[in-house]
Amino acid sequence: MIHNAIESVLAQTYKDWELIIVDDESKDNTKAVINKYKKLDNRIRYIYQKNSERSAARNNGIRNSLGEWVCFLDSDDLFYKTHLEEFKKLIKFNNYKKGIYFSGLSNGEFSKELEIYDLSHKNNIEFVLINTFATPQACISRAILSEQKFNEKISIGEDRDLWVRISKNYPVFIHCSKTLIQVNHPNRSVNSINNIKEHIRLNKILISELKIHRSLKNKIISNSYFSLSRLLLEKNMKLRALQIVLISLFINISNKQTKHKIYIIMSLMLFKIPKDYRV
User: DSSP readout, the chain?
Assistant: First the structure.
């Protein structure tokens, strides 16, 4: 999969980039694949480290970066060809202000539809909590990342933890083009029930430490439980999915996901879920 990720960077319309690939002690042919690309393009650099998990790998890449702005890309995801160009335009439009910039997200393949964000926030911290941003959706000033790093003690939800810390002191900017393409496959960490449970635990810790209105806290936790119910549904664990979606609805009944929750509850009670249903 890393082959496709590298190709997506090579295809960028914005050409002034460097690609730092941090190998976290992979057991496959990653090194051989990267060495072939290195011979073809001197903008590609390879760093090997003993297994230390992704937060350490990202911090390692940041330390070795030379540019003023840092983007991230996981080996199983893709940049649409204008991903870097869209960030360049957004950064320039905001007078190169140091901050955290986010792109939209496409699932499976590039979508021309614009991203729709939840804008019911009162400040930047609330915004990054009520919206879910994958690490590769971010572009951040390297000056900020020299102060705020990924917490290497957190293995799940480390990106949201970083977004919250950065947004306390720096502005947040968004564009609506879905230029980050998330490739779905069974081995993705987001498809792990235990990992989603860990996300819920981290969310509870984060919001307990922040001065956030109770209704918003409920919304954040409700959304987390709803994500878990959807995954359980995909794994055909219908009774457990029904329990979790009821918890989600009980915590927060009034948000844009309510109609989806009610649909799932009604369908589960009949044990009839259309195969093509997506929420």
Answer: -HHHHHHHHHT-S-----EEEEEES-SSSHHHHHHHHHHH-TTEEEEEE-S-HHHHHHHHHHHT--SSEEE---TTEEE-TTHHHHHHHHHHHTTT-SSEEE--EEESS-B-SPP------SSHHHHHHHS---GGGEEEEHHHHTTS---TT-SSSHHHHHHHHHHTTS-EEE---B-EEEPP-TT-GGG-HHHHHHHHHHHHHHHHTS---HHHHHHHHHHHHHHHHHHHHHTT-HHHHHHHHHHHHHH--SSTTHHHHHHHHHHHHHT---TT---
Structure tokens at 46: 């390879």
pLDDT of residue 261: 65
So what's the pLDDT on residue 277?
43
CA distances for 205 relative to 167, 200, 220, 242, angstroms: 17, 9, 12, 25
- Average pLDDT across each block of 10 residues of the chain; the chain has 279 residues. List them in order: 94 97 88 93 95 92 96 94 98 97 94 91 90 94 96 88 95 97 70 72 80 80 80 76 83 69 65 47
Q: Which residues make beta-bridge pairs with 180?
A: 79, 105
One-letter amino acid at 211 equals: K
**pLDDT score of 197:** 79
**Which H, E and C letters describe 109-136, residue by residue?**
CCECCCCCCCCCCCCHHHHHHHCCCCHH
d(CA 34, CA 3): 8
Query: Whose CA is closest to 78, among 155, 185, 156?
Result: 185
> Rounded to whole angstroms, how far apart are CA atoms 157 and 53?
13
Decide the pairing of beta strands 138-141 and 69-71.
Answer: antiparallel
